[in-house]
Design brief:
This protein has 133 residues and is of the alpha/beta class. Helix content is 17%, strand content 32%. The protein contains 2 helices and 8 strands, in the order E-H-E-E-E-E-H-E-E-E. The strands form 2 sheets. It has a 4-stranded mixed sheet, with helices on one face. Strands 5-8-7-6 form a 4-stranded mixed sheet, covered by helices on one side. A hairpin with a 5-residue loop joins strand 6 and strand 7. The longest helix has 12 residues. It is globular, with a radius of gyration of 15 Å.
Amino acid sequence: MPVLNVEHVACNVSDPAAMAAWYVDNLGMRIVRRNTVAPYIHFLADARGQVAIEIYSNAADPVPDYRAQHPLRFHVAFAADDPDAVGATLVAAGATLVDAQTQPDGSRLVMLRDPWGLALQLCRRTTPLIPLS
């Protein structure tokens, strides 16, 4: 059986350039590759440079109405030392708070929507999902 690593996760969005700029300015991501012509592909790497998301606007399939979807259907989760403080900062930058809860093990999860309606989750886990090596 092959041993594979996730390269990226992709989302069709309405305004990839504006969304990429917001993710860079507010989530500490960086653009590692982009295309300035349709479908305006932007690959964004996380702060550690180990995970990437691709956002684009491709007319071959309609952009989902992310706001109408339950945030558990699809969300992008970020590790955060203080999810409540980061969430407040993101709300001030145009995100919307959806829910905040503490899990029975003490993990803190804050669910938001970015300005385009895509669900974002901020996680402070009692035990890291994948410990850093």
